Amino acid sequence: KAKAAGRNTLMFFNPAMAEEMLERHEIEVDLRKACEDGTLELYYQPILDLRTGEIVSREALMRWQHPTRGMVSAGLFIPVAEQSGLIAAIGDWAIRQACKDAASWESHVGVSVNVSPLQFREPRRIVETVKDALIASGLNSRRLTLEVTESLLIEDNKTTLGVIDELRTLGVTFALDDFGTGYSSLAYLSTYPFAQVKIDQSFTRTVHSSEASKAIIEAVCQLARRLSMNVVVEGIETEQQRIAVQLLGAQRAQGYLFGRPEPLANFLPRKDRNVA
Ligand code: C2E
Ligand code: MG
Ligand code: MG
Ligand code: MG
């Protein structure tokens, strides 16, 4: 926070900040343990084709069964993992686990894994991790999508494109996540070889109250179609939102209306459950 305030601002250290720092530190210590004792889990949320109503893919979302805090959502601990460097190990684990899990479900259903920009700072590592995960799981590489955010594209350059290209050669596809929340340069969509763009849930939430949200969803869907990318609209919670985004041209959707993130065991066919 102090950094964001700019270098000419004098920030006083107040009790709220001290508490926040302590909490971060505590989360970091616990998270380091969690990496070792296997209390991190992947939950999966379905992504549907709006025309057919079928599940086409599932997004892996990390959860942490914390000893005292209960189930902690990724939004809370991923930033801590990024700041502490733990994201490299956690990110590797997520890729391997998601490939293994996806290999146990319907063979026509893909899997999407979120990847932190920091994981691209070790280009060899992420490429090797993905290769190993595909081989170890036997998952067809075409079923794997890696989700990245715009912050990755702002920092780089050649290394990022190199990693993306190398992984695409293997058959892996890329999705641009949370589109519309960052710099959202339309140029990213043509510069980088994304197969998918995910429109952020903030547009879904305001689809009925804001003409701008409607216009943006519609424009991104049209552009994506011209560039042969598919669009996923995130955060669909109501039937009215589903109808609205479908009319605006969305092909795919994700959100609580269709399913919350759930552990693998909840949706795996019964006969497969004990092998997972
Ligand atoms: P994301 O990739 O944009 O994931 C979507 C987030 O929206 C998830 O939050 C999901 O639980 C939530 N969500 C889905 N449908 C709805 C809905 O209908 N309404 C509302 N209000 N929310 C919905 P979650 O699981 O807390 O994850 C937050 C973020 O943390 C993710 O955003 C992603 O950027 C990051 N993340 C999650 N798992 C991983 C991971 O394994 N690795 C990395 N690097 N980041 C991860
Ligand atoms: Mg995502
Ligand atoms: Mg998103
Ligand atoms: Mg997000």
How would you describe this protein?
The chain has eleven helices and ten strands. Helices cover 45% and strands 20% of the residues. Strands 1-2-4-5-6-7-8-9 form an eight-stranded mixed β-barrel, surrounded by five helices. Helix 1 packs across helix 2 (74-84), helix 3 packs parallel to helix 4 (123-137) and helix 4 (123-137) runs parallel beside helix 6 (158-170). The longest helix has 23 residues, at 15-37. It is α/β, with parallel strands linked by helices and 276 residues long. It binds ligand C2E and magnesium ion (3 copies). Residues 59, 114, 147, 177 line the site of one magnesium ion.
Helix-strand makeup class: alpha/beta
Total helical segments:
11
Summarize the amount of helix as a percent range. 40-55%
Strands, count: 10
State the end-to-end CA separation: 43 Å
The distinct bound ligands, ions and cofactors come out as: ligand C2E, magnesium ion
On the 0 to 100 scale, the average pLDDT is 90
Silhouette: globular
- Order of SSEs: HEEEHHEHEHHEHEHHEHEEH
State the major sheet. Answer: 8 strands, mixed, barrel
**Any low-confidence stretches, pLDDT <50, length ≥5?**
none
The proportion of strand residues reads 15-25%
Organism: Bosea vaviloviae
Protein name: Diguanylate cyclase
